[in-house]
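Board notes (copied after class):
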Amino acid sequence: MKVPFWATILTLSGVFILCGLGTWQIQRLHWKTGLIAAIAREDARDPMMFELNAEHLAAVPSDQIFIRGFAEGLYRHQDEIRIMPRTYKGEIGAHIITPFELLDNHILLVNRGWVPAGQNSDYIKPEEPLILTGTAYKPEKPNRFVPENDPAQNQWYRLDPEEIAAAKNLEVVLPYVLYAEEGYRMPVSAATKWELPNNHRGYAIFWFTMALVLSVIYYLRFIRKKL
């Protein structure tokens, strides 16, 4: 029996796509492993050894998206926004993003942590000069499934320093966001701790296994019968 041409084309196409997905997951595995290692290195650093200001951040290598340090200045609570939705221990809420005016007059956005949905102002808002510690992160472009921000309605889903600066008329906003370690009961700063899952090895095995299964089915259905 002659092997149908369509079966060969469909099988080869399927195997190609499945192997491509597996290869992509391996690439993601290497990327995520490096990212987790970078976070671990920064977590081990003393934050008081690096001041997060415009001069120092400008000297950070462009491929370094995490940097642990401290920042000194004042909160501008009147310009804070909420990134939604964000969950903490299964509860829906938001992350409080507050501009922080540094001693050099630059603005560093600070992710103060999580508050439950509907909680408008029942959390601590320090007015005095502060020294904050934490890990600064350079936000990357979110995936296409994240909704666009709507500044006119004050609805925020993406962490975009440039867009936030334009909406709040903030000048000289740095491209990093500080994930602060304030330790207040509310906002919950522990909710923003970087704990990245790394399941890409399992995903890669799954896609390569599916490619093998498809190849075996093709062999049993068409090749072995022909033999």
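Comment from the instructor: The chain is about 35% helix and 25% strand. Residues 60-192 form one domain.
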